[in-house]
Design goal:
Layout: E1 3-7, E2 13-17, E3 20-25, H1 27-31, H2 43-68, H3 73-80, H4 86-98, H5 104-119, H6 123-132, H7 137-145, H8 151-162, H9 170-182, H10 187-201
Antiparallel strand pairs: 1-2, 2-3
């Protein structure tokens, strides 16, 4: 097949065979390819070039995602699979691991601490959030066990943040109860903590 190329406005390389567009690869992938400078290519050579370009693009996308915030490995894989084939995703993840850019344990510890410190979530809700982000059960449990959590104080802090009036309405107390349950606290914990806070309101 006759091989020709063109350059996009962003500096990427369009690959064409017999005058028809096939795919686009990053410029550095093209210039280091054995096909660079040739006027003909076999289908197998084009497949290899395409796969290499996809892996490079997946890696760059992964770096952008990690630049926005930390990700668990499974969560990152799921996002990359929306745009790239499995082989490209696995190649990108392998490069990230080799570079030390993925660490599920450190990610879980940081997120667990943030969920308690900022939102005052109880351990069950923190576990739920970690596993939802792709952290395996054991790693998530270890992260939560490493926290210094005061459940009663967590409930009190949520109540205080809601700034309820001295004599809240039934609607307001129902809203408070839903929020505390959603944060992972049990009814028993809530009753005990509310008694404490009621004493502070007297």
């Amino acid at each position: 097949m006759e091989l020709t190329t063109s350059t996009t406005k962003k500096g990427r390389i369009n690959i064409l065979t017999d005058g028809e567009y096939q795919f686009t690869v990053p410029a550095f992938i093209w210039y280091r390819s054995p096909l660079c400078g040739q006027t003909a290519a076999e289908p197998e050579e084009l497949e290899e070039l395409h796969a290499e370009g996809q892996a490079a693009d997946a890696y760059e996308k992964a770096l952008r995602l990690l630049g926005n915030r930390a990700h668990a490995e499974t969560e990152l894989r799921q996002k990359l699979k929306r745009d790239y084939p499995a082989h490209a995703v696995e190649a990108a993840v392998a490069r990230l691991n080799e570079a030390g850019l993925l660490d599920d344990a450190a990610f879980a510890e940081t997120l667990a601490e943030e969920l308690y410190r900022r939102k005052r979530y109880a351990p069950p809700r923190i576990l739920q959030e970690l596993t939802h982000r792709g952290v395996d059960a054991e790693t998530a449990k270890n992260a939560v066990n490493g926290l210094d959590i005061d459940r009663k104080q967590g409930i009190i802090d949520i109540i205080e943040k809601m700034r309820l009036p001295e004599h809240p309405t039934r609607k307001e107390t129902d809203r408070l109860l839903r929020r505390l349950l959603a944060a992972g606290y049990t009814m028993r914990e809530i009753r005990e903590a509310v008694e404490i806070t009621e004493e502070t309101w007297e």
